[in-house]
From TrEMBL:
GO biological process, one term: lipopolysaccharide biosynthetic process
Protein name: Unannotated protein
Source species taxonomy: unclassified sequences, metagenomes, ecological metagenomes
Segments crossing the lipid bilayer: 25-44, 56-77, 98-116, 150-169, 181-207, 219-239, 246-268, 288-307, 319-338, 358-380
Keywords: Membrane, Transmembrane, Transmembrane helix
Provenance organism: freshwater metagenome
Length: 412
């Protein structure tokens, strides 16, 4: 990383670091997942040869959430390590993570499964497994259930457990900051390669598509989706620790636009050039190629948001506008509620799945989802987060434009 002129403000100043543009990434991911599910369930993706292929691939938001989690969760640990400070209490970290996802998820699961029955619990989808987010470890429960998209929450929870364990391994010996930086980068790259080889190995031995899909939800085969965010966390923490003034052009509008245009190019390629089926029922090779390209898109999207300065600039004005910040706050609610309202729409209109109006379903789903997400945020998520913050115990902290929404769990 190069240095800028002495007058250039550092995007990673010491102390509390703000990354307001990450809210826009989170909002885009949440809205994209909602749209792709409406497009698929309404049948629009199959009916439209122009927009359909693009709408079918907006589940790229899953990878965006994984990259965000890798960055937001790992940065405080590595920043503390560079500063020679203790990593904080694991109990406090675990409490905050659980309070961030479990109360709202349990309420939604209960309402959707037992009240709305949109859908309800149907065997072999175990109630216990879904409440404990263990469904990804049983092939009979991976698909289905009241909140089908919760598979990604289960993957996220596994990452929550992994982060402090990895941080502990990385801090077993005292090293100089430069040595620690090299170790962090080498170890994360090695972990990425090992996970990639594991996925390629599954393809080479000819596992069935359903088996590959299930194993793709398990952290050892999915950890690669978090590692770009973790590497960004290492770089960000290193710059902050050394008070390096990055070259001003790195956070310029031109660089941000170039990276985002590259992301658009990747999205165009995966949507139109691979001959993929509209529904994400892929062969193992297709599934892994899509995952890698999704990860590339997500990384290109997030980098400008990480580089953006806290003050007003192109990226901040674009990705941290009031609407993006609000959508980022309620993005978790958008995730856990939207598929239920699609099911309700089909029920009250008495129309078949795959053959209904895309725009009507989208309007109905968006309105009811935003209402549900807003209620979830103000009545469940925000109070739980505040309670967890007041509870005794300390962990390394990283602030963003809206701290309570950091590391919102991912979407399918």
């Amino acid at each position: 990383m190069s240095e800028a002129s002495p007058t250039a403000p550092a995007p990673f100043a010491a102390g509390k670091i703000r990354f307001p543009a990450l809210d826009g990434c989170r909002a885009l991911a949440a809205v994209g997942v909602l749209i792709t599910h409406v497009a698929l369930l309404s049948g629009f993706s199959n009916r439209s040869t122009t927009l359909g292929p693009y709408l079918a691939r907006m589940d790229v938001g899953v990878s965006v959430f994984f990259v965000l989690s890798g960055f937001l969760l790992y940065r405080p640990f590595v920043a503390a390590r560079f500063a020679g400070q203790p990593a904080g209490e694991v109990g406090a970290y675990a409490r905050r993570r659980l309070l961030r996802i479990i109360p709202a998820y349990w309420v939604a699961l209960t309402v959707v499964g037992f009240v709305l029955k949109a859908p309800g619990f149907v065997e072999p989808h175990s109630i216990v497994s879904h409440y404990l987010l263990l469904q990804i470890y049983d092939s009979t429960q991976l698909v289905g259930g009241p909140i089908q998209q919760a598979w990604s929450l289960a993957t996220e929870v596994a990452f929550y457990v992994f982060v402090p364990c990895w941080a502990w391994v990385m801090s077993r010996r005292q090293r100089g900051a430069a040595q620690q930086l090299r170790l962090e980068v080498i170890a994360l790259v090695a972990l990425f390669v090992a996970s990639a080889l594991g996925n390629v190995g599954l393809i080479k031995i000819g596992v069935a598509g359903s088996t590959f899909a299930q194993l793709g939800t398990w952290l050892p085969f999915r950890i690669g989706d978090f590692i770009p965010g973790m590497l960004l966390a290492v770089g960000s923490a290193w710059v902050s620790h050394n008070k390096i003034r990055l070259a001003a052009w790195l956070s310029s509008a031109q660089v941000a636009l170039a990276l985002w245009l590259l992301a658009v190019g990747v999205f165009w390629f995966v949507s139109t050039q691979l001959g993929l089926p509209m529904f994400p029922i892929f062969t193992p090779t297709q599934a892994y190629v899509v995952r890698v390209l999704y990860l590339l898109f997500a990384t290109l999207l997030v980098i400008p948001a990480v580089l953006a300065r806290s003050e007003k600039g192109f990226v901040t004005k674009t990705a941290a506008n009031p609407l993006a910040i609000w959508l980022g706050l309620v993005s978790y609610g958008i995730y856990i509620w939207h598929e239920a309202w699609q099911d309700i729409y089909l029920r009250i209109t008495d129309q078949p799945a795959l053959n209904t109006s895309f725009l009507n379903m989208l309007a109905f789903t968006a309105v009811l989802t935003l209402i549900s997400a807003t209620i979830s945020w103000y009545l469940i998520e925000k109070p739980a987060i505040r309670w967890g913050s007041r509870h005794r115990g300390t962990i390394p902290q990283l602030t963003v434009a809206s701290p309570p929404s950091e590391a919102t769990p991912t979407r399918p």
